[in-house]
Every structure is written in structure tokens, then in C-alpha cells.
What we know:
With 421 residues, the chain is α+β, with helices and mostly antiparallel strands. The chain has 2 domains: 7-211, Cytochrome Bc1 Complex, Chain A, domain 1; 233-420, 2-Layer Sandwich (Cytochrome Bc1 Complex, Chain A, domain 1). The chain has helices spanning 48-55, 68-74, 99-111, 117-136, 143-151, 166-170, 174-184, 200-211, 263-273, 279-287, 320-332, 338-355, 359-373, 382-387, 391-401, 415-420, and strands spanning 7-10, 16-21, 27-34, 78-83, 88-95, 190-196, 236-241, 247-255, 291-299, 304-313, 407-414. The chain has a 6-stranded mixed sheet, sandwiched between helices. Strands 7-11-8-10-9 form a 5-stranded mixed sheet, sandwiched between helices. Strand 9 (291-299) and strand 10 form a beta hairpin. The mean pLDDT is 94.
Amino acid sequence: MPHITTHDVTLSNGLRVIVCPDNGAPVVNVTVMYKVGSHDEHRGKTGLAHLFEHLMFDNAEPGSDKQYDLYCTKAGGSNNAYTTFDYTCYHIDLPAHQVELGYWLEAERMRGFRITEHALQTQRSVVVEEINQNVFNQPYGTWRKALQAVAYDERSSYSWDVYGSADDVSGVSMDDARGFFERFYHPSNAVLCVSGDVSVDRAIDLANKHFGSIADAKQPIERTTFDDSFRRNGTHTVVEDNVPMSAVFVSIHLPGFLHNELLDADLASTILGVGRSSVLYKELVSEKRIASGVGAYVDRRAHSTLLTMYAYASDETTQAETLAQAIESAIRGFVLGDSQLETAMNRMRTGHAAELQRVSGVADTVAHSTLFWNDPVYANTVLERYSSVTKQAVADILSRCGDPTQTVRVDVVPKELSHSS
């Protein structure tokens, strides 16, 4: 397991800077993670966090014609970004000698609001088209949207997906965008993590040079709140879609990552749905042959997490109810042994080690653990923490996964099947 060395400073404007030097290869990653996601939105104004991720690639001085992709490509690097329920991350990979370019580009995003009407109009259209392609025109693409609505009360901002509503995105005004930037895109609401072939002194000097003069927000952020009563249990919805066969998605509620490490959930989901030896694969694919694909994963969120299991029918005659009953039966009939737990732990160790072999993986991991847990070196101890998870803790989660009173469920069925039933 790689050991991450970190150096931690906070600039006078509140920006947290973490440097993770690694001279193994002449590459660097510059990551800026902001503590804002779709959970910070309000009904009627959904999708703003994800839209803003797109807008930040156009946040340049008027007339500068700055193109982030072009700058990075010419320097031999690449850049991207992603939005989650609770945070937004921008990251740039560059040759080590081009590290200052990464600082400059990311500081320009944060320095001030410079979005034009043309950029706003363009990116609204881009995001609406992305929603159409990835949700409504994608086979089985609507299930995530349906799951949020069935898993959470409508008072919760977890009750819509990160994309939000296409109608809401289309209606975002310049005042909406400017207000969002001024509320969330400032130094004390972010972490800058630089990983790779750069000296600590140079990394900190560059942080001061490019970010040090950026003013912090004048007012503290008023966050949306989450209440335990927002969680729903035992709920079920059916979605008709242009799909050839049925699929079922079953989730249980778990604590948010602010309140629980969720390591037992990681192990439980691995045992349930990762690989050919998993509980769901052996039962639904290998033995009963009613599913063509199965899986399980943990969807971490700050205040409330979902562990989701899924199965896609192998033929037109297998209905969603059959898949759901098979999932429940497989879990109820499973007895967790030491060997399954050890196999799951080994999978997690391998996955974490692989992530930390890349400077981008280091930066993303360290930025996240710093932003939310104030613990830049969390990754150095996580494997030991997995080993301390008890069999009983994992078994308790597995038991809940097989209890329909504890789950929420989405069935995606072919339209013609739904109409004929």
C-alpha cells in the first residue's frame, strides 16, 4: 500500500492547500474540490451545481478567449471535472514542468464571476442535451432519477438526482448563476491538492502567487439541512421504459459519510455483487439464470447513503417481481463466512492501492478527506480500518438488504409489458 506524504497549509483567505510530493514520475495533478453539490440546491432550482461545473470552463476574462482544454492539450496535459450530491471537483493532469499552468487555470475559475449570457445559454443547452442522452434516451437511464424520489421525502434535496430537472436547468438565469458562484466558489469553501513531482516549497509558493489574492466570501454559507425523517423505507415504484427486459434496483439507507466511515457497507456490497463469486451472481446468474447482469455498490453521500443492488433480466419472460424475490431469497439464504469477508477485504485493499498509484487518485482522495473530515492522511490508515470491521457488522447490513420493510425499490419494465399486466 503506497504511503502518502502530505504537507498542509491554509492561506490567509481560508484556502486549504495540501501538497503530496511524489517524484516517481515527471507528472503532477492539480485538484480543486468545492464543498457544493446538488444537495445545496432547492426544489425548482435543481441541476444548478452540475450546470455550474460546465460554466466554470467558460469563466474567463471578457475577450481573453480562454479555452481550458486547448491550454491543457498544448501543454501535454488533460483536465476534467465532476459533480456529486455534496461536492464538485476540478482536476488537471500535467507534465511536471507545466505545474504552474494548473494553478493559473484553477485560480481563474475561482477569482471572480465572468460568465457571459452567451456562455450561459450555450451550457444550459449542453446540459439539457446531456440529461436527455444519459437519462431519457438511455436504456434503463431513468432508474436513478426514480430511486431518489422513492428513497427520500420531497422535502430533501437528496430526492432528485445530480442532473436535476431539464426544465429547471433551462430556466437558470444570470442572477441564479452569479448568486451560486458568490455563495459557494470562494477559498474557504475549497481544498487545493497538488500531487506528484513538485517540491513542497514551490507548490506552496505557487498557491500563494495564484490563489492568495482571491478574496473570501463575506458571509458564511447557509447550508441545506437533512433530517432522518426524510428517509423512506418499504417504498416501491415502477418505471415504464423503452427497454427489452425488466430490471430491478433495491436499496437500503445507511448513515452519511460525515457520520460513518461506511467500511462495513463497502464490504457488504462487495460480497453481494462484485465478481462471479458474489452472492447475487451465483444465485441469479449462475444457478437460476434469470439475470444477465447483477451488482451492488455504495452511493456515498454526506448525510445519507444508499447501498444499491440491481439485476437485469436475462429474457423477456422474467418479471421484476421475480428478480426482487430472488435477490431477497439469495441474501436470506446466505451465511457469511470468514473466507468471504477476507476475499472482500482483499478486493478493497487492491482497489485502494490501485487508486493511490496515480497522482490523480491521490489528489482526489486527499482533497475529499480534507474537505469533509479534516484528515489529509486518512488514506494511509484506511486499510487497517477495513481489517477492524467485524463480521457481525457486515452481517447486520446483509440482513437489512434482505428485508423488504427496510428497502426501497425501483422496477424498470418494458412499456408493452406494463400495459399488458
